[in-house]
Amino acid sequence: MIHLKNVHKRFRRPEGGWFDAVRDTTLHIKAGEIFGLIGFSGAGKSTLLRLINLLERPDHGSVNVDGRDLTGLSAAELRRARQNIGMVFQQFNLMANRTVAANIAFPLEIAGWSRADIDQRVAECLDIVGLADRAGHYPAQLSGGQKQRVGIARALAPRPHVILADEPTSALDPKTTQSILDCLQDINARFGVTVVIVTHEMHVIRSICHRAALLDAGEVVELLDVTDKQVAARSALAKSLLEAA
Ligand SMILES: Nc1ncnc2c1ncn2[C@@H]1O[C@H](COP(=O)(O)OP(=O)(O)OP(=O)(O)O)[C@@H](O)[C@H]1O
Ligand SMILES: [Mg+2]
C-alpha cells in the first residue's frame, strides 16, 4: 500500500552544509495497518511521514502509495493523489473563523464536491467522531480532544485510503489521548483506512499499532511487531523507549 524505497531527504543547515534527516530508507506499510513511526526528537519521524504525501520531496528514492509512484506525478495529478491521503496534526491546524462543519467541509470544497454531497459527508464524519452536536461551534469553543476529533473528521472527509497523523495526541492529557487513539482505531477497523502515526511514546504504539518502525538519526533501526499489546524489542534503543513508557 505504501512503499518507500531508498528515500533520502537532506536539509540545508542554517550555518552551512547539509543535514541528512532521512537516510536512504526503505519501508513497506500494508493496506489496513496502523503503523507507528517512533523515535526520539530529531530522529526524522515527521520528515519521513511528510515524504509519504510529498509534503517533503525526496532527494532520491521512490514513494509509492496505492500503486502509484507519487514522485512521477504532475502538480495536478499530485493534488488529486493527495485527496487519498488525509493528514492529522499535533496542533490540530483548524481554521479559527470557520465552524466545525465548515472546517470538515473545507477539503471537499477544494476537491469540487457539490453542496449536497458535502453536507451529507460532513454530517457522516461528525457522527463518526462523535461531534454531531458541535457542528455550528467554532474551534475556540472546543476542548483539545474535540479539536482533534474535528481534525480527524476533516482528514477522513474525502474518503482517503490513508491517514497520516503526526503526534496527534502530544498536546492532550492522558485520558483524552486514549479517546483519540480509540477514535483512530475505530476508523481503521470500520473503514479499513491505513493509518501511519508518528509518536515518541511507546504506549501509543502498544495501544493501537499493529507494527512500528523505530527511527534513529534518519534510519529505520528496528521493525517492532506488536502482538497481544506486547512489544518485542531487540535493540537497546527500543528497550530504552519501552522503559520510558
Ligand atoms: N525544513 C527543515 N529545514 C532544516 N532542517 C530540518 C527541516 N525539517 C527538519 N529538519 C531537521 O531534520 C531533523 C529531523 O527532523 P524531524 O522533524 O523529522 O524529526 P522528528 O523525529 O519529527 O522530531 P520531533 O520528535 O522533535 O518532532 C531535525 O534535526 C530537524 O532539525
Ligand atoms: Mg516531529
TrEMBL record:
Statement: the UniProt record of this protein carries the keyword Membrane: yes
Named from the GO MF annotations, one term is: ATP binding
The protein's UniProt keywords, in alphabetical order, are: Amino-acid transport, ATP-binding, Cell membrane, Membrane, Nucleotide-binding, Translocase, Transport
A Pfam family assignment: ABC_tran
Name the source's superkingdom: Bacteria
SUPFAM superfamilies assigned to the protein according to its UniProt record, in alphabetical order: P-loop containing nucleoside triphosphate hydrolases (SSF52540)
Alphabetical list of InterPro entries matching this protein: AAA+_ATPase, ABC_transporter-like_ATP-bd, ABC_transporter-like_CS, MetN_ABC, MetN_ABC_transporter-like, P-loop_NTPase
**In the UniProt record, does the keyword Transport occur?**
yes
Q: Which residue intervals define the domain ABC transporter in the entry?
A: 2-242
What PANTHER family does the record point to? AMINO ACID IMPORT ATP-BINDING PROTEIN, METHIONINE IMPORT ATP-BINDING PROTEIN METN
Q: Under which name does UniProt file this protein?
A: Methionine ABC transporter ATP-binding protein
- The species this protein was found in: Vogesella alkaliphila
